[in-house]
Design brief:
The complex is a heterodimer of chains A (198) and B (234). Chain A is an all-alpha fold. Helices cover 46% and strands 0% of the residues of chain A. The chains are: A mainly alpha (198), B alpha+beta (234).
Chain lengths: 198, 234
Amino acid sequence: MAQVATAAPLQGREEELRRGLRVETGGNGSGKDIVFPWKDLEQLIQEPEEIGGSQKISPEILYRVAAPVKEDIETPKVLRIREIIQESIDCLFNALEIDDELERESVMNLFTESIFRLSIFIKVNKNLKDAICLIQTAVEGQIKSVYERDKILALKEVLILMKGNIFMDEGILDKCFDILESAGFDINAPLTGIELAL
Amino acid sequence: MRIEFDKLIVERIILEVRFSHGFLYWDNCGKIWKRICEKWVELEMIEVSPDKAVFKIQDQGLQLKFSQKDIHLSQEYPPTSLKLFKEVTKEGIPLISDFLEIKSFSRIGNRIFYLYHTANLKEAEDIVKNTGLLTVSGDKIKSFGDDLYEPQIRFKIQNEDVGYIFNISALSRVLNVELPKPLKVDSSKFITDAVLIDVDYFTRKAVDLSITDFADLIDTVQKNLKYNLTKLIS
């Protein structure tokens, strides 16, 4: 186990102040470093997010503050974004269970409201910004139409991806685009009528 | 005597992430260096070898080191806001991780060395002895000598996800720096006697880069310590 290698001034009565020595943080509490279950690099690069999923820390635990008065603590952005996304996902789950079209559309209105609340977080990550814009564009393009089941499922899939990847890379963003496009959302709606000079 | 959190001086703060398979270090070291220099122009290259690359901002006491197995950032006597430290971790670690194609960390550690300045070593020793974390009865002490000196307490508190290692000790040290005449060292700000409270926060499970905001993580650890550290040691 790589244990603490502290710099000189930290212990003893007459230690010299030596600079430039490396100080590490200590072990992980298990007596050894965590060893991932994957075997080779190829496996790691292709599907890292699916490996050892059950052994990962959730953001709710990572950013948890044990404070006497919770109201005094500003919730980290990651958790606030995840909360809003979860509200949106809950709306979609509810909508999927409603047979009455009118009632379902009113739940989807609540969903739309949640999605637009994400706008304040567009500075968190460039790809997240694009994903938020993407989903808002999809929702805006849907205003005059009724949501079909496949579209609700696609929105749910995209939001679950976003929730697990707040600081997303371009690969995840592309995946979001593909899911929405293949569900029939008009992602290019804002460009309608514009002649592009190619 | 009760230690007040606001009177603790951060002598050094460290944030370290560990990972497996960072082999692209050997391919991308120069590219990483170039991108990092564009962001923080004051960074000086100290050492680059197949083992590690080390950079520093001397004025700020900030050091960034990365290799095929970890990224390590430390700062000595950071300002209370930890502005630069948080900025470099928040932007630098994802940047390096992208080049190394690292998506998960096997461990994240955030270690802070606090000093509580005392008038002398005896005062520091008394504070450590009175934390309630160390109990040695007078009888036991008398079996070996007159009094207990240089107390040091080390323990770990953890759950299945995260943990803290605490190391509390009385510290006395001298500054030993030689300069050619007629130069003299101004050691007025050097703390010789203190209680050293070394706190090492660590994760015990893998953490995805895609959900990690290092500035928020540092804030979370700081808040947890602010609310709970003095309760633990008083």
